Amino acid sequence: MSTHEHDEILDELGPIVDGDEGALERHAERLAENDALRDLRHEATEAAAQVARAGADYAPPEELESRVLAAIDARGGGGESTTEAAPSKDEVAPPEPTTGTPSAADRPEAKPPKKALKRLERIQSRSLLIGMGGLAAAAALVMGLLLTVFSGGEGSDALAARQDGALDARIVRVMRAGDDARTGVEVRAAGSDDFRTAAANTDLRAGAILRTDDRTRVELALSDGSIAVVDHGTELELAASPRAMRMRKGRLLLEVASLSDGPIARLATPAGEVEVLGTKLAVAAADDLTSVHVTRGEVRIVGEDGTAEHVRAGQEGLLRAGGGRVHRPGDRPGVGRPLVGAR
Amino acid sequence: MQEQAEAAGDVEGDPLAELIGAGRHREAIARCAREHGPALGRMCMALLGSQAEAEEAVQEALLAAHDGFSGFRGESTVRAWLFGIARRMCARRLEVRIRRDRRLRLVHDAEAEPALPDEEVERRRAAARIREALEQLRPSDREAVVLRYQAGLSYREIGAACGIDEAAARKRTSRGLGRLRTLLHDGELT
Known about the structure:
The complex is a heterodimer. Chain A is of the alpha+beta class.
């Protein structure tokens, strides 16, 4: 067989593998007479079958639809293209008559796969932040927080995004250890001097400060579509600047919505700032030290001295007050990896 | 002319195209996420090899699609259009990755693999192996092969997704598949 004939076959290898009648007809004689060509077709068919498995290990997120809608809202698009008027609330994803599939607004929050929860349980026994004084026991925290995030909840519609990009929030759930009548969460509105008791479904506006006592955790839905779980004894401020929060003390789990053209989410702590480039992280902050553990995506940590470092999935970055970053090189390799696939 | 007529036939009766045409963009994007999200994710996974990046690429692609609904002319199927956007998102991410990997100094690497059932481990290994082979194809050939044999697009849809005509899509796919066969069967995988 000439090189030209070989090239002709290669140029139609796809249709030949597909069983395209025209291609098979054109090359029938060569295929019948040439063992090497038949082997080539066989091997190419096998290769094509393997390509079909190239994305088989992808785990589709159950909440994709609601995330996309929340991100659209967060960008201020109001759910329709910029050339059109924003829809009213009633127009938001009405039931699809052709499929009967419920809309994001109608659907209950996505439940975690059992396998994911089992993975998380395995992680529970691992220590995350050994010997860090006020940051100790964060492994249990991360476990608890992740279980909280993935265990669903009362659910609520996404908050409307603000024009200035600052974050509003809604308290989705309050989880309190103990059966006393207190909620254990207080909110101080922007411009106010008083903290007031808050409960589920309370809306917080930018500038508000939320604090939890030592027995209470709170799940927040943020107006950019992100989710935050505020742990015991934490004080968190929704800053007035775009997608910014400030954590004065305590611990926080963030699952940050990815906005292709929105501002970067930022979390200030007493020891520096965390710029969230990716999507999921746990942050523990004390006066002198902040730990950032990235379980998916990537963040950039910036110390008080202005130096910066990227921290990627499976890694932990530490910020020390007074300047100087501290990293923990490889003492618990892979601690975040199981979380990456947990969703 | 014939291709345009055929494409119009594909779009006609497509509920997604009708939603877009009717300006019901929010419903359309929600439906795109439901119906095509998993397939888009698998294609992004095939090209990017990262669950997190694939998820984000899909979300970005859907947001970009939402932004572009008003410009959708129905010259291809909505599916081909979505895959075309996702393909570009993946290409952009791969370029960023190349630049970033040169720049970043890692704090420490996460090396330990979680304990997984044997079949899951095998599935991941097989997927990783084919992705390794795909990485060695020319980017344009790789995308055509993935769109055809991973995402299941027709050659006309591949053409629409890649901005080429159907014949070129067929040729790219064929050449890429031929090279892939060599890599997988003749031990040329490095």
